């Protein structure tokens, strides 16, 4: 489940709009194609007297999802430091090896076909950190458990498809048309909050397309006041015809519990992605390569523009589609491919749904003048690749900042480094053509740390050799040690300062 604190988004596990059908009559399920029975049990107008009949029809297709994960835990308290090998060696003891422990997660899902395809959220089945997914189990409302195979998952949209199997047909539901939803429509959510399987809550659609401010290509949700909590993630949000119009995904909360503001992935967004995952098709999205900011009151006032229209370009990535088309920092994008850019329909959402390689027109306002630029849409990188492009030297652990290489540099210099991409160079205020490696972590007791090298420092060269990768830096260190040198000369650039050469003692 995603939580929002203030403006933070909380994942819950969502479901898409669907109608329940089954391969054979069972329990209180609706008889197939019996329109009269459907009309008899589904309220058409006004406040429903009861949701009981509709719930009885839909519950058989809503399932609980549990996972078993194995997490590696380093038992060495000095792990990651130059003194790691010392721990456990006292008295001739062998160094302590990493241990593992089990973890579990709970969520919700729903069956969309008689042969057992199940939709849920990616975050329900995706382990965090060093965890490894070992097992996924789907539990039916009657308590029957089935081992599940992960058919496919998509991190960007936070969707996943599982497959369960049995000789008999499964009850299932259908996606509905979420674009026809209106503010004030009744909805019900069924799921597994806090492990309480089969929990049903009701409410209304509070907003049809809500941008939470979290950013990303899919920050566009149905908002509802139906109570959803931890464990509802991946479960369905139904309309009064029994269609899945949303997949419960996140909440806005200051307490961690429901405060009446929940978010569901619209069915119109989810269904095409689900079908591609089932078919095993690669999911590709459009990409411009810009960092944007929605228009707010102050920004609009400074530019003399309407507050509710367009998005402001804060940065342009080198070599990407936007730069090639001539888009610049300070441009305000007002339409993309003929579609207005608004708070509800963001630039990221529009572009992500355009096929890479397509040539489109982007209307901008530059220095108060409207211009239209032709742009050939690029291909959106994976979420991991996008995360790796973000580097904040003021944060202890930057997103995606994994060391490019490890042992020798850390052992000899007390440093960890990552590649210097054009994006990171821009974030550090360096020219896009700058080459080198970025310091992502420093041992404060090392000679490098004591001489002012810190996170965000760029190493441009070593011993009069240009450095473009961690491997090249390792070669210089290895060569210096082979020659018996006790230090190497690093050519570095610290934020806000000119290039300098710093002699660093080897350890």
UniProtKB/TrEMBL annotation:
Its EC number is 3.4.21.107. It holds the Pfam family Trypsin_2. It catalyses: Acts on substrates that are at least partially unfolded. The cleavage site P1 residue is normally between a pair of hydrophobic residues, such as Val-|-Val. It is found in: Periplasm. Keywords: Hydrolase, Periplasm, Protease, Repeat, Serine protease, Signal, Stress response. It is an enzyme of class 3 (hydrolase). The keyword Nucleotide-binding does not apply. Residues 277-355, 417-495 form the PDZ domain. The keyword Hydrolase applies. Its main location: periplasm. Residues 1-28 form the signal peptide. InterPro entries: PDZ (IPR001478), PDZ_sf (IPR036034), Pept_S1C_Do (IPR011782), Peptidase_S1_PA (IPR009003), Peptidase_S1C (IPR001940). Belongs to the peptidase S1C family. This is Probable periplasmic serine endoprotease DegP-like. It comes from Croceibacterium selenioxidans.
């Amino acid at each position: 489940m995603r939580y929002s604190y203030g403006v933070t988004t909380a994942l819950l596990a969502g479901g898409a709009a669907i109608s329940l059908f089954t391969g054979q009559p069972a329990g209180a399920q609706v008889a197939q194609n019996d329109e009269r029975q459907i009309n008899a049990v589904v309220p058409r107008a006004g406040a429903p007297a009861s949701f009981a009949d509709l719930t009885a029809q839909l519950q058989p297709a809503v399932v609980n999802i549990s996972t078993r994960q194995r997490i590696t835990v380093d038992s060495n308290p000095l792990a990651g430091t130059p003194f790691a090998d010392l721990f456990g060696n006292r008295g001739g003891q062998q160094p302590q090896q990493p241990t593992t422990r089990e973890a579990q997660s709970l969520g919700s899902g729903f069956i969309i076909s008689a042969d057992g395809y199940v939709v849920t959220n990616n975050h329900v089945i995706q382990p965090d950190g060093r965890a490894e997914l070992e097992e996924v189990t789907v539990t039916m409302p009657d308590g029957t458990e089935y081992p599940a195979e992960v058919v496919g998952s998509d991190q960007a949209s936070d969707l996943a498809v599982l497959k369960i199997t049995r000789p008999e047909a499964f009850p299932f539901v259908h996606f509905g048309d979420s674009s026809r939803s209106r503010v004030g429509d009744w909805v019900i959510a069924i799921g597994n909050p806090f492990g309480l399987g089969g929990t049903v809550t009701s409410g209304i659609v509070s907003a049809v397309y809500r941008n939470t401010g979290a950013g990303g290509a899919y920050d566009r949700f149905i908002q509802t006041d139906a109570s959803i909590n931890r464990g509802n993630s991946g479960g369905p949000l139904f309309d009064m015809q029994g269609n899945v119009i949303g997949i419960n995904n996140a909440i806005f909360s200051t307490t961690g519990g429901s405060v009446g503001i929940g978010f569901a992935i619209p069915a119109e967004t989810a269904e095409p992605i689900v079908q591609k995952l089932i078919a095993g098709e690669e999911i590709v999205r459009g990409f411009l390569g810009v960092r944007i900011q929605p228009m707010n009151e102050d920004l609009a006032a400074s530019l003399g523009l309407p507050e509710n229209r367009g998005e402001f370009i804060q940065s342009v990535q080198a070599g990407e589609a936007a730069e090639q088309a001539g888009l610049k920092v300070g441009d305000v994008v007002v339409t993309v491919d003929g579609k207005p850019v608004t708070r509800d329909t963001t630039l990221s959402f529009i572009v992500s749904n355009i096929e890479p390689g397509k040539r489109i027109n982007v209307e901008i306002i530059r220095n108060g003048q409207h211009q239209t630029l032709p742009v050939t849409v690029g291909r959106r990188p994976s979420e991991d690749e996008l995360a790796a492009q973000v580097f904040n030297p003021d944060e202890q652990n930057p997103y995606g900042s994994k060391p490019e290489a490890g042992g020798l540099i850390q052992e000899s210099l007390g440093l960890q480094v990552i590649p210097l991409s054009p994006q990171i160079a821009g974030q550090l205020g360096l020219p896009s053509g700058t080459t080198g490696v970025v310091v992502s972590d420093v041992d404060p007791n090392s000679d490098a740390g004591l001489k002012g090298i810190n996170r965000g420092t760029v190493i441009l060269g070593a011993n009069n050799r240009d450095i473009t990768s961690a491997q090249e830096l390792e070669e210089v260190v290895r060569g210096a040690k082979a020659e018996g040198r006790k230090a190497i000369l690093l050519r570095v650039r610290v934020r806000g300062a000119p290039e300098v050469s710093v002699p660093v003692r080897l350890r």
